[in-house]
Amino acid sequence: MCSYVGVDVNEDVQLFYYFIHSESNPKDDPLMLWLTGGPGCSSISGLLFEIGFLYKYNIFFGQLNMTNIIFLDIPVGTGFSYARTAHASCSNNILYSEHAYEFIRKGRVIWKMNH
User: Rounded distance, CA 113 to CA 97, Å?
Assistant: First the structure.
């Protein structure tokens, strides 16, 4: 499942995430938040090239088998995350952490419905 969560005062920052259920027991398995180092690197690269699905045969056993994972494109302007206004496109370490906290706080409701 992938979508956006609006953060900031008027939800002018739209953070893109890709949520993958655990392959074993999604309701009881832990939830992991994947942030790719950067700045400016999309977390989708982690999904595709580091722990993800690019295997010819289904012999891989790892995080995807026993963990629910959220791949988050943060800060704003990274990957598919975007700002609705020029002012919202500005980012620094404090805004980055505030946006991440708000994403987690708002996202808990979404993931409980789909988890």
Answer: 25
Q: What is the pLDDT of residue 7?
A: 94
Q: Please name which of 75, 71, 65, 66 lies closest in space to residue 100, comparing C-alpha atoms.
A: 75
Domain that holds residue 54: 2-114
3-state secondary structure labels for all residues of 63-92: HHHHCEEEEEECCCCCCCCEECCCHHHCCC
Find residue 72's DSSP bridge partners: 17
Residue 48 is part of a domain; what is its CATH number? 3.40.50.1820
Note the pLDDT tens digit of each residue in 24-78.
Answer: 888 888 888 888 877 678 888 888 777 765 454 554 555 567 888 899 999 999 9
